[in-house]
Amino acid sequence: MIGVFDSGIGGVTVLNELVKTLPKEHFIYYSDSLNNPYGDKTKEDVIRLSLNVTKFLIDKGCRIIVIACNTASCSAREYLRGKFPNIKFIVTEPAIKPVYDYNKDANTLVLATKRTLESDNLKELVNKYHTKNTYLCSMEGLADLIEEGNDYKISLLLNEELGKYKNLNIDSVVLGCTHYPLIKEKIRNFFPNAKFYDGSSGVAKQTKRVFKKLNLKSNNKLEIDFYDSSDSDVKKNVFFKHMEVEK
Ligand code: DGL
Known about the structure:
This protein is an alpha/beta fold. The chain is about 45% helix and about 20% strand. Strand 3 (about 65), helix 3 (about 70-85) and strand 4 form a beta-alpha-beta unit.
């Protein structure tokens, strides 16, 4: 069993890649929508919440846990790896390195939550893989609006935040929050010629490598169990609506 978690339903964008890469496994997805957003919280709070979810997934029998949330990955990975040395944690981080590998001259725009942008992990990534220009934009409130499906407010927020970058020749956009690929086309309207990056396919490849290395027995069929801390059927329906593969 492979555990996957996010502060909400955004991690579905990672799960979709996982299912393409490991199409016959049993996934347990946990959406902590009672406590989202994580992006506006302190590091300590994100660690505490991630710990609760991790314990739940370990109790369900997961030996691999995919943190399908950039915010939780950047804030809680060291803590979780230290506390649970027998569990393999796969983390999602803003795809800044892939931009650098592809084009060191890029004008890069990194979109992420406030907590992700303030994390040491993000600072290290930017120091190491800075392209010609690397702009960091905190999209406060956006993950929440995506959870709500509030298209009107999403457009207002995008206009306000992304409008500032329209004349900077942005050619590479990093979607550094797992919710953002769900509105990729809306973001693309601001940067129609840019190349878009997110961490999900890298996460899926890494999960497959770890699954093989641990010699885990295949489930031989796809199963997806969905849990949500708010027990909301609405979340469940939205989540499965975004799943690209039939359960
Ligand atoms: N989906 C999460 C991420 O990748 C965070 C959203 C939030 O709760 O703020 O960063």
